[in-house]
Amino acid sequence: MERDGLRFRSGRMCLDLTATVVGRYRADKTDQLADSDDLIRWLRAVGLPHPRGRVTDDTVAQARELREAVYRLVHPTLRHTVDPEDVAVVNTWAALPDVAPQLAGDARSSYQLAARRPVEAALSALARDAVLLLAGGILAGVRECARADCSVMFLDTSRPGQRRWCDMAACGNQAKARRHRAQLR
């Protein structure tokens, strides 16, 4: 799924956060949380509260710190060695007040998520999602895309539990086309 020029294909908010480093294993990787505008755009696209103005560089750095802690705790090859500092980062954010649902003016239609401190609440929601993923019995279903230059992790909810690609339309088709061309040679 794509929103506001950003791709969301992991199946979990916290995994989408880790995917904000595009091409993590490439020399030309891109950080989609490079500055205040990027963070606000990403929060808006994922549907979390975001401030109307800018956020501080410290706040952007904190979001990236949470992203990297979640990445290390969830990644299939890294998650077996738990760093207490990563756990502390996630727990610190998860302990803050979360976003709250709000009714629309007619008290019947869909609600919006709101918070007095929107970025803190958004990071809290992301950390809580990570806690639920890590401790909820579904961590074994987290995979990393099998395409060599893709680093997106996703939650495999397929019946056989053998999904290999973060997105069949992108990574899966590219890998299959590459394999087909190699067979033709």
Quick rundown:
The protein is mainly alpha-helical and 185 residues long.
Contiguous low-pLDDT stretches (5 residues minimum) are none
Output the strand order for the largest sheet.
Answer: 1-2
Return the string of H and E elements: EEHEEHHHEEHEEH
CATH superfamily: Jann2411-like domain
Top CATH class = Mainly Alpha
In whole angstroms, the N-to-C terminal distance is 34 Å
Mean pLDDT equals 88
Q: How much helical structure, as a percent, in the residues?
A: 40-55%
Strand composition percent: 5-15%
Count up the domains: 1
Number of helices: 6
CATH architecture: Orthogonal Bundle
Largest sheet: 2 strands, antiparallel
- By secondary-structure content and strand pairing, the structural class works out as mainly alpha
CATH fold group: Jann2411-like fold
Strand segment tally? 8
